[in-house]
Amino acid sequence: MFITFNEFSQRADKIRAEIAKVCAAAGRDPREVELMAVTKTHPAAAVDYAARYGLRAVGENRVQEAADKKPLATATIAWELIGHLQSNKARLAVGCFDRVQSVDSEKLLLHLDRAAGELGKTLPILLQINAGDDPAKFGADLADAPRLVEAALAKKNICVDGLMTIAPLGATPAETAAHAARTFANLRTLRDDLAARLGTPLRELSMGMSGDLAAAVAAGSTLVRVGTALYGARE
Ligand SMILES: *Cc1c(COP(=O)(O)O)cnc(C)c1O
Fold it and tell me: Does ligand 1 come within 6 angstroms of the Cβ of 82?
């Protein structure tokens, strides 16, 4: 059976408290850090819980799953794509999502820009960077990131809000923690460099999930993407 709203609410309170604690230690304002609920594999009720609690957005990692779930959710909330997107699904994604966090190639940019133009909208995006050099992860290589960001900034129907990354898993908890710290520091440094060089804020740093959100917030995350810690383990 799926969790109740009360359980969801208690878990969300606990995560917010953890974010506040890390922010206090890092000298950050906790209002700079958004909690986004990752509802993939969960029923539409998961989306309604997030909205009722007051969260701005939910994250889904597959276009078709989100398209199927959207009509079943009664609450109004923003939908964001956080999973890999193939160019041939760009049009469907632009129609379905309020923001795409997983843009990782110039080819995909081209398709998204064209689809947004055809649908008469400006699409907010994040560029996904493989800031931890994980061979198993999608995302542009750190070395290719400057060119990708410049290409995105030049697109007429796209608005670049910032960067996103996923930290690689290690063989042990200590190794995973080390990867996370390195990955988040890399993304933060890249953002600061590019923002200064290109004269654009790239405000959003989407980093941190259930297992590594404290490290991400300490490193400057503005948005943590949390599934398991809110809804329990996925099947
Ligand atoms: C599934 C997913 C998450 C949430 O992961 P949890 O460990 O369940 O919090 C965050 N980001 C991305 C890109 C995901 O695919």
Answer: yes
